[in-house]
From TrEMBL, chain B:
The keyword Transmembrane helix applies. Keywords: Membrane, Transmembrane, Transmembrane helix. This is Uncharacterized protein. The chain crosses the membrane at residues 6-26, 33-54, 74-98, 110-128, 140-158, 179-200, 212-229. It comes from Cohnella ginsengisoli.
Length: 407, 321
């Protein structure tokens, strides 16, 4: 746990070949690396974190010699940006705080430290701008950070789960980010951020539905381009959510929605398929999910092979064998590709799951079911609150204030 | 905040000119329907003004809370029960007619009860959310649906198939007849959206000003103009048979040289009106809220509203302030 170089420079050299009792005593009492009067019951904790405990002339000193794994910022890996800053958070909390301070350099930026009494004892930092933050939200987050459970706390994702509390929510109410610039923008809006030592992701809260559809490049690209891309993302989200359900309901319930030629084309492509449309959809969706999962977990060199085998060869063969229609192959690909357009991976997981709910309603109630399902989704989203703030309300600021009063 | 008030007026208007108001008005199109429009606009606007002005004096209080504050408990409870019956009936009528419409135009072969069950379940669930959430839902659904509704409307308006002569005929003949009471009642119903303030006034802050109320007659006039356009093909038909006039209007939407299948245009408006219809179910929310306050007086929501009442009374040194 200890850094040998620090141990050598800080203690062994002054104590051995340059030993001067007066100078050494002075160093122990004045150097910022040494702490005196640490209660005995905390010694074990310090030792386990990589500190050195030294007894000299009856006094006990604690010397900080933690081995640092990282000394420079990481490269962005999950939230890539073309024109924005390329540095990302690391697994070292102090370095992460420096990164944030570099970008959000105001004296109002406040950092509160928490040391949960769980098995990991990783430090947690709560960041906010004290002139802008919402006191109610802050209190709530402090309370939840103090009441963390006592198991192992390994990653920011796990901490975010514990902070969100409700287990079966359909959408995330915190956002994970590896980008200091995203965190700074978030703090500037008066929101909070939580950093966990040992995790290269920060937790942003409270968040809104719309926050998940922003990539950081939207702030750096020309305005029209970024608006176009945001529009594209929303359309993709709707496609990935609804297309399988719409396929089932149009093919099996309401073919008259399309013009005659298109309806005949779709029907013609399904001529060889021996079972109803929903079995076809479920079959293809299962295949694509399995393919995505396999290529995620496999090593990179094998991953591309799996994609080729699964996507190209199997899809083509399934269509030629008459197991699925060629239109269904297109639908599946659109669903898969559109899902990857969503910039936030946690959010895209939730959308990926939610499309099955629409598939199920469309099997039983057709287009009516899809429309009613969409209505219920809107109600569900409007009813969600992220740490007291409305999750899906348009024109947030005023709505947020009003909601505090009423909820 | 004031926009939420106008959302109610707008979507209730949209719904009412789809469901039953046109049925009455078109069957009376030669005896007083058209001449009742200006009267209805005047009455509807006045009524909205009076209601909003009255509720402005009780910020943060819905009708049930106001009853409780001023009336003896038994009378307040009786009046609330009347409110429950009225609003629940209205909600059920809308729910039923919409599920019927959707059944006819989406999938006539499907079981009507399945549609009704699906929609009733969704509505009941939605109505049991908090009032604030229902308000957010209104906003989102209206903002999503309105552009598409307007697009379809303008497509109809500028099509060659719109029979301007028939519209002129009905307008011309209708305006000369004196208005009948039935038509006035039916057409003022288009303005009934402002009545939702009886419940949603709970969410209004004390500094709320009802600005832009002059837009209410304009919105009303817009709805009546739509109604008139819809009558374009039925000048001499015996009226009163078309229950869902608006949808039949889309049914007759001209197809560009038979390029589109006639039925293709159908589900679109129906699909759009479903979300608009669903938000109507603050009716059920009203019933739900009142039942709650009647049966379980110690409910949290109730405590909040009572606290608000007492705070207001304290602030103003007794009612009426």
């Amino acid at each position: 746990m200890c850094d040998m170089d620090q141990l050598k420079d800080g203690i062994i050299i002054p104590f051995s070949y340059r030993f001067d009792p007066d100078e050494f005593r002075r160093m122990l009492h004045t150097s910022i690396g040494f702490m005196k009067d640490v209660p005995e019951e905390h010694w074990v904790d310090f030792l386990l974190k990589g500190y050195i405990i030294l007894e000299y002339e009856g006094d006990v000193f604690v010397f900080r010699a933690i081995r640092r794994m990282q000394t420079k910022p990481d490269q962005t890996q999950v939230e890539a940006s073309l024109q924005g800053p390329q540095s990302a958070f690391t697994e070292n909390l102090d370095l992460n705080l420096t990164l944030v301070r570099n970008l959000y350099n105001v004296p109002e930026l406040t950092v509160e430290n928490f040391e949960p009494q769980n098995q990991s004892k990783s430090k947690i930092a709560l960041l906010y701008d004290r002139t802008r933050r919402n006191e109610t939200t802050l209190e709530e987050v402090r309370k939840r950070l103090k009441n963390l459970d006592s198991g192992l706390l390994l990653s920011a994702g796990q901490l975010a789960k514990q902070l969100s509390q409700a287990k079966y929510r359909l959408f995330p109410i915190t956002q994970l980010t590896e980008r200091p610039d995203r965190l700074s923008i978030h703090l500037n809006k008066g929101k909070l951020a939580v950093l966990l030592d040992g995790s290269r992701f920060a937790i942003l809260l409270p968040v809104h539905f719309f926050d998940f559809m922003y990539a950081m490049d939207d702030h750096y690209e020309p305005s029209w381009m970024s608006r176009f891309l945001i529009g594209l993302r929303y359309i993709s989200m709707m496609l990935t959510l609804l297309l399988p359900a719409l396929y089932i309901s149009i093919v099996s319930y309401n073919p008259e929605v399309f013009r005659v030629q298109l309806a005949f084309t779709i029907d013609g492509s399904r001529a060889a398929v021996p079972y109803p449309s929903f079995i076809e959809v479920l079959l293809m969706l299962f295949m694509i999910e399995a393919l995505i999962e396999a290529s995620l977990r496999l090593p990179r060199s094998v991953g591309s092979t799996a994609a080729t085998v699964g996507g190209l060869i199997l899809g083509q063969a399934a269509q030629q064998a008459g197991l699925v229609s060629s239109i269904m192959i297109i639908v599946t690909s659109v669903v898969a590709i559109s899902n990857f357009v969503i910039p936030n991976s946690t959010f895209s997981y939730f959308i990926r799951i939610l499309k099955y709910a629409f598939v199920i309603v469309s099997v039983f109630a057709g287009l009516v079911g899809v429309v009613v399902g969409l209505f219920m989704l809107v109600v569900y989203l409007c009813n969600m609150r992220s740490f007291g703030e409305p999750y899906f309300a348009l024109f947030q600021s005023k709505a947020g204030k009003a909601s505090d009063k009423v909820q | 905040m004031i926009r939420y008030y106008y959302y109610h007026i707008f979507y209730v208007g949209l719904m009412n000119i789809m469901v039953l108001v046109p049925y009455v008005l078109i069957s009376h199109r030669f005896d007083g329907a058209v001449s009742s429009f200006p009267i209805a606009i005047a009455f509807g606007t006045l009524y909205s003004y009076v209601t909003s002005a009255a509720f402005q004096r009780f910020p943060g209080l819905g009708l049930p809370e106001i009853y409780k504050l001023f009336l003896p408990v038994w009378l307040a409870n009786c009046l609330n029960m009347v409110g429950v019956v009225i609003w629940c009936t209205a909600g059920i009528i809308v729910l039923f007619s919409y599920s019927n419409t959707v059944g006819i135009f989406f999938d006539p072969e499907a079981s009507a009860y399945l549609n009704l069950a699906v929609m009733a379940a969704a509505s009941l669930w939605a109505a049991s959310r908090t009032s604030r959430s229902v308000q957010f839902t209104h906003e989102v659904l209206l903002i999503v649906s309105t552009p598409i509704i307007l697009w379809i409307l303008f497509k109809a308006l500028f099509s060659n198939w719109l029979d301007w002569d028939a519209i002129r005929l009905i307008a011309d003949a209708g305006i000369r007849k004196p208005p009948s009471m039935v038509c006035i009642f039916a057409s003022t119903f288009v303005f009934s959206g402002h009545m939702n303030i009886t419940l949603f006034n709970r969410l209004n802050p004390s500094d709320l000003k009802f600005r832009l109320r002059w837009t209410i007659p304009i919105v009303g006039a817009f709805f009546f103009a739509r109604l008139l356009f819809r009558a374009d093909r039925l000048p001499w038909h015996p009226g009163g048979r078309q229950l869902f006039v608006r949808l039949e209007r889309y049914d007759r939407q001209p197809d560009d040289e038979v390029r589109l299948h006639p039925a293709r245009a159908l589900p679109v408006p129906a699909a759009l009106y479903v979300p608009v219809a669903r938000v109507r179910h603050e009716h059920l929310a009203y019933g739900h809220g009142v039942f709650q306050s009647l049966l379980q007086k110690v409910q949290a929501a109730d405590r909040r509203s009572q606290r608000a009442c007492h705070q207001l009374v304290d602030l103003r040194g007794g009612w009426p302030g």
